[in-house]
Design a protein that fits this description.
The protein contains 7 helices and 3 strands. By secondary structure, the chain is mainly alpha-helical. It folds into 2 domains: 3-57; 60-181, no CATH class. The chain is elongated and about 70 Å long. The structure holds zinc ion (ZN).
């Protein structure tokens, strides 16, 4: 054993002995137990969140819109992705799962799409977004407007989203883009 390895090892042993002494104290035992319970509660919470998102996707009457993530400079063509404004299922995370750092909600969406084979391929609205970030934003806007206008139809909510995003001048006229590119 080299001297530096010996030094590190003896340091390690001292730390282990100290920790063993602390672990015998009642209030430390209580702390360890609480920490364990918190970890369990966190796991339960995440599982519940995951399952409720999958459930939401399975009960959703999907409102599919299109958006584009890729732009081919060579032939100036765009490839289209499709996603639901209500539950968030979308082809972008389905096609790019290996390169994206998915949130728990996105993992649930992906799991639902794989199990149910519900991969949106066609849109049922004329609304179009420039990229995934705008699509995600529109999903949040859908929830926001729906919560505040419970009786509003999907068409009315879409109008509100269009007005909201066009007033921000971040999204070009969706209908015009669809007309020119599809
Ligand atoms: Zn949906």
């Amino acid at each position: 054993m080299t001297s530096s390895l010996e030094k590190i090892n003896s340091e390690r042993e001292i730390l282990e002995t100290k920790i063993e002494l602390y672990e015998k104290l009642d209030w430390i035992k209580e702390y360890i137990m609480l920490k364990k319970r918190l970890e369990e509660a966190n796991i339960n919470y995440e599982n519940e969140l995951f399952n409720s998102k999958v459930d939401e996707c399975s009960k959703c009457e999907h409102l599919i819109v299109s958006f584009s993530e890729d732009y081919n400079d060579f032939d100036r063509s765009k490839s289209y992705e499709y996603g639901c404004l209500k539950c968030g299922i979308n082809t972008y995370i389905y096609n790019n799962e290996k390169t994206l750092d998915l949130s728990l909600e996105e993992k649930a969406i992906l799991s639902y799409m794989k199990k149910s084979k519900m991969i949106p391929r066609y849109r049922n609205t004329n609304i179009y977004f420039n990229n995934y970030i705008e699509f995600e934003k529109a999903c949040k806007l859908y929830t926001y407007f729906k919560e505040r206008n419970k009786d509003a139809s999907d068409e009315m909510i879409i109008k509100m989203i269009e007005e909201s995003v066009s007033s921000e001048k971040e999204i070009k006229n969706p209908k015009e883009i669809v007309k020119n590119n599809v």
